[in-house]
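Homework help board

Subject: predicted structure for assignment chain

Our instructor gave us this sequence and asked us to write out the predicted structure in token form, then describe one feature. I got the tokens but I'm not sure how to describe them. Can anyone check?
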Amino acid sequence: MKRKTGQDRSITANWRPATLAVRGGTARSEYGETSEALFLTSGYAYDCAGDAAARFAGEQAGMTYSRLQNPTVEMLEHRIALLEGADACRTMASGMAAMTAALLCQLQAGDHLVGGRAAFGSCRWLTDTLLPKFGIETTVVDARDPQAFVDASRPNTKVWFFETPANPTMDVVDLRAVCALARERGIVTVVDNAFATPALQRPMDYGADVVAYSATKMMDGQGRVLAGAVCGTEAFVNDVLLPFTRNTGPTLSAFNAWVVLKGLETLDLRIRRQSENALEVGRFLEGRVPRINFPGLPSHPQHALAMSQMAMAGPIFSFEVDGGRTQAHALLDALELVDISNNIGDSRSLMTHPSSTTHSGVAEEKRIEMGIDEGMIRINVGLEDPADVIADLDHALGVAGL
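My token output:
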């Protein structure tokens, strides 16, 4: 008898998150391989022309083209959906492909979107530049205030879009309150959960409709590949999102999907250890820098909220120096262990200066509005011994005059 696999929800319903991260979504070929198979193929063959016609008509199950389906990619989609607690998931070529698709698939000219003002630079480019080009009006608000979403909404508002925690200010959004307000008004919430991943926070548990990811970050977690994902109901993913992605093609490669599948196996272990390390590093920095933005610390104004909806605060946070770009760059240049890199979610400790990298494409006045000044530095704490990271920071802070 063929054993049931990680795609059988009657079995996976009883599995806990750590088990789902290793086995969820797994489908084995006739060879019975233990590790997920890597299917490097663009197309598929049919036994007869009638089978091809039936598959394209949706009358027969099976693969048609890897822009739509691939066995390796499908396993990853099943696994992420299970971890998220979602009905379905579609993966994308990158995190920004996921954010773009999650919005454009459901918006059209004449619609209105309310977005959180503190966001990744490219996400602000979507709301501030791309969507208005297509006749979609946008308003950005302080997402820390649930009422701000209500006050900014109009009769034609279709979506509320926000990150929590936000990149790089670490603003925290009250998921339960904001999602409840949106549902009362028939507005779809789209949440960027890349900083937390479902290992630390599941927005759908608090009423979110759509959750989007840069799987490049903690899900891969080792700085290897680009990937994105969008989770939602079967109706949203298949009837709203899929027609958009089918015809625009932001397709995730099978190889990248396989790498992320391997990354998910250790996600829970990595993100929890990195969160512990980040807390140690954060405590050290709190006594050395003028300002620190880390929800894991009791000094953060939204610490209680963050800890009520997150299992841990995650490995990423930011801090600020008073000497602007000159002092921030001096600190970064003095690092010997920690890498200067704009990436996050890596198992290596990384630091960057958002104003001159990730948010350099955002106009200065908007950066200031978002709370990002020239003295802000973002850090991703990795799996190294935190004492070594602290020693490196101690040295760099001294060189920078802190």
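Reply (TA_rk): Your tokens look well-formed. For the description, you could write something like this. The chain is about 40% helix and 15% strand. That's the kind of observation they're looking for.
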